[in-house]
TrEMBL record:
GO MF annotation, one: serine-type carboxypeptidase activity
Name the record gives this protein: Unannotated protein
Organism: freshwater metagenome
Protein family: Belongs to the peptidase S13 family.
Organism ancestry: unclassified sequences, metagenomes, ecological metagenomes
Annotated keywords: Hydrolase
């Protein structure tokens, strides 16, 4: 029994130390194998690039200069913009006070991207709760004015238009319909009197981590706009596009084929090439400033939007792929990094010509998983035992 157990343990050790390396394709074998794998009907003529993460050598490419829909891999650009222009340790505070003048309410915002419309979700996720801020404000203004909610003016700054609309909707359902007036930050400060309620977001690095792991569209848009403003560009979609172009140019990447209509990847008008994203991922990986981008990416079979991937399609790749997912109707994308024995590869796969529907999307994801499974293998350091001294 003991002998069988010993043999079993030895087999496991050998399998772990030898099989993954043997199973992974060598760099020289990749082009022929990938040509065949990428010809799968499930992928419908995708664009792809594979780059050696150490040397920058392009090991494989197919349609890599072709403009494709990025879907949510566009958030990689939002992440790089955030780490380029914003302080990862900074946070956002929203203060609400009674005004110096009667019947005024003052909201001093800082364009907090973390505000949530759902109170229960906000508290569970430690997000700033808009209902919490709105309810406390309503109670205070009602108490101060003897129960009256008539002829109230709200002076505010630093709020997204959507948050203003959500506040108005929340209050209207409770019979409070104030006059909303956007003012400057200085005017808000000058008119604030007795504090009512205040809330502070987590730091930007925590917000970005959540954004990338769970592909949050609203957070990506807001972080990108904050980055655009910090870069000296407009606080809108046009400013975000200009900011993305500036970033690529700073990395000496040709941005002429980038079309950025939004930062989340929701628009089907967005366009990018596998080459642009691949070169960006390669260059930021070598810069410690962008390490958070790498650590925030979902891990295959383990976390975020990749938690259910590779489990059955390519089990040997579990834990070895860090990547941003992307999905639109007719589009499945994946871009990031894969560990492969003695190296790390940067990869980008953009399959935006697949049939519409969940079945086609699932088949495309499985095909991409299997593709990465052919090169994924853990880095196992070689251990050389010292020879025993002669007797």
């Amino acid at each position: 029994m003991r002998s069988k157990l010993g043999i079993s343990l030895l087999a496991v050790v050998v399998a772990l130390s030898v099989t993954p390396a043997d199973a992974a394709l060598s760099a020289a074998s990749i082009p022929a194998a990938f040509d065949e794998l990428l010809s799968a009907r499930a992928l419908s003529n995708p664009a792809m690039i594979l780059i050696d993460g150490t040397t920058g050598e392009v090991v494989y490419e197919r349609n890599s200069y072709s403009q494709r829909k990025p879907a949510s891999v566009m958030k990689l650009l939002a992440g790089v913009a955030t780490l380029t222009y914003l302080d990862p340790q900074s946070s956002f505070t929203t203060n609400i006070s009674l005004g110096l003048e009667d019947r005024t309410l003052i909201i001093q915002g800082s364009y907090d991207p973390w505000i949530s419309l759902n109170h229960n979700v906000a508290r569970k996720m430690k997000r700033e709760s808009l209902p919490y801020l709105a309810f406390n404000s309503l109670s205070a203004i009602k108490k101060t004015n003897g129960g009256s909610l008539k002829k109230i003016t709200v002076l505010y700054s630093g709020l997204y238009s959507q948050d203003v609309a959500n506040l108005k909707s929340f209050w209207a359902k409770r019979g409070f319909k104030p006059s909303m007036k956007a003012v400057s930050g200085d005017e808000v400060l000058l008119n604030a009197a007795s504090p009512i309620v205040s809330d502070t977001s987590p730091s930007i690095d925590e917000i970005l981590d959540f954004t990338l792991k769970w592909s949050d569209n609203a957070l990506a848009e807001r972080l990108a706009r904050l980055s655009s403003r910090a870069a000296g560009n407009a606080f809108n979609a046009a400013g975000v596009s200009e900011t993305f172009t500036q970033i690529l140019t700073s990395f000496e990447i040709d941005a002429s084929k980038l079309v950025a209509v939004d930062a989340s990847g929701l628009s089907k008008e967005n366009r990018v090439t596998a080459q642009i994203l691949g070169q960006l991922l390669f260059k930021v990986r070598k810069d410690e400033k962008y390490n958070l981008l790498y650590t925030s990416l979902p891990v295959g079979g383990v976390s975020g939007t990749l938690r259910s991937r590779f489990l059955t399609t390519a089990p040997n790749a579990i834990g070895l792929v860090r990547a941003k997912t992307g999905t639109l109707n007719g589009t499945v994308t994946l871009a990031g990094y894969v560990e492969s024995t003695d190296r790390e590869y940067v990869f980008v796969t953009l399959a935006d010509e697949i049939p519409r529907g969940a079945r086609a999307e699932n088949q495309a994801r499985a095909a991409i998983d299997r593709l990465l499974g052919r090169i994924a293998a853990p880095n196992i350091p070689t251990v050389i035992s010292e020879a025993a001294p002669p007797p």
